[in-house]
Amino acid sequence: MSFINQVEAIIQHNEQLDKSDRLDLNQLLKKLVVEGECTFKNVVPHQTKPVSPLQYGRNVIFQSELYEVVVISMPALIETPIHDHGESDCCAYVVSGLVENRCFSLSESAKPLLRATQYYHSGEYFYESSNQIHSMKNPTGKSFTSLHLYSPPIKNNTIYKTVMNHKSQYLK
């Protein structure tokens, strides 16, 4: 069974359970990683190249009413725009490389203020709640690949306008 078929089967099984019996987002992603054989070899065929305006690859490999699964491929020294996930929670797994996750809050004038920076290596998981504002950065000279599980699928998210430095400008 292909990686995508395994992802579909695991999620569809979880969706068929009574709400009280469903796995939470963290448990479901861990099940996808282990039972879905989420290895670099199995995920790399689902990486995509950056498509403007994004500077990184973002490929939705599964979507239902409850869940969305995305493969993110981040080239060296690239950062996502500062954003939130709307009403969606997110759990992510680092398939390969190093992810710098930068967490923000909004100032009184609604400008993002950096509050924390966390680093996640290959094989590690991280969680972003629906109210979290963040960006992901690749601080290394090699690309990273990550698998993201959102619930519900992302909609009504916000990308925050800001100039981070002379190399990067993020626009809404």
Automatic annotation (TrEMBL):
Q: Does the keyword Nucleus apply?
A: no
Q: Could you state a single Gene Ontology molecular function term?
A: oxidoreductase activity, acting on single donors with incorporation of molecular oxygen, incorporation of two atoms of oxygen
Entries under Gene3D superfamilies matching the protein: Jelly Rolls
**Residues the record lists as binding Fe cation:** 83, 85, 134
Keywords attached to this entry: Dioxygenase, Iron, Metal-binding, Oxidoreductase, Thioether bond
Q: Where is this cross-link: 3'-(S-cysteinyl)-tyrosine (Cys-Tyr)?
A: 90-150
Protein family per UniProt: Belongs to the cysteine dioxygenase family.
Protein name per its UniProtKB record: Cysteine dioxygenase family protein
